Amino acid sequence: MRSHAKNVNYRVAERDFKYYIFDWDDNILHMPTRIHLEKRMPDGTWVPHSVSTAAFAVVRNDIEHFRAPAGVWDKAFSDFQDYDNENESRFLRDAREALEKVLSGATKPGPSFHTLRQTLVEGRLFAIVTARGHEPESLKKAVRLFIALVLTPDEKEEMLANLRGYRACFDGLTKFGSDEEELEYYLGLNRYHAVTNPSFKKWMADAAGAGAAAEKAKQFAVRDFVEHVSKIMSRTGDHEFRNPISVGFSDDDPGNVIAVEQYIQTELARKFPGIKFCVYDTSDPSLNNGRKVVVSGQLDLGLQS
Ligand SMILES: [Mg+2]
Description:
The protein is an alpha/beta fold. The chain is built from 11 helices and 9 strands. The strands form 2 sheets. The chain has a 6-stranded mixed sheet with strand order 6-5-1-7-8-9, sandwiched between helices. A 3-stranded antiparallel sheet has the order 3-2-4. Helix 3 runs parallel beside helix 5 and helix 9 crosses helix 10 (254-271). The termini are far apart. The site of magnesium ion has 7 residues, from loops.
């Protein structure tokens, strides 16, 4: 007979507080979702031409040869949205296909795939921040699928022991819910931001002013996560703050990396001087975990004229 005693890892209280913000496409997984563009032929006519997200990152600024269908970007990104008549989000379907390809060895995982896996096993807080336009629930379901397909049975058991440990140490729980309830509680604590989703755009416009530019969206989502984490931390009491807190951000788009780096330097490092920020540029697929840049409050001292 299997024992019904639940494993609880109380040692999570001694850990550092390391949290991650992940871009999804080409950072976690290479998704099969295509962007529908038009390509200019030598005779000057435009023909339909779909590209992967990785190829889009290369051709996006080549406006002489590539454009959205008749200039309408919503059409180019029609597969990056959820629709009312779907019984399953396109995102979940594409994530399943991408995960199966990784697990069969047909394609390489994204540079931050293993960091997400480790984050989940350790039960750490994280955020998914993507330029897609899906519902948060669709992103959450894809993370749940990641856990189901990628983590081994031992890793799932380890994750649940860590989750119960956090619940015991920080929420004072002595009795735990079912495995499913504890997993759902954990997934509910994390953030899932698709920054071109209509609800996200409205929320950002309400909070940051209607004129907030699209490129600010990732910065806004990053700030939301840091505020969210710091709120959870303050709930757990002062004595817990002896452990260092760090927040990592990984993205394969160099433009996003630079925008977030600058945002951390000019805003977040001042607002959260106790937090160490790390940015991982994963644009080079040959580098596992990407190129790490430490951007912390202390590094800024003396650099401002
Ligand atoms: Mg990406």
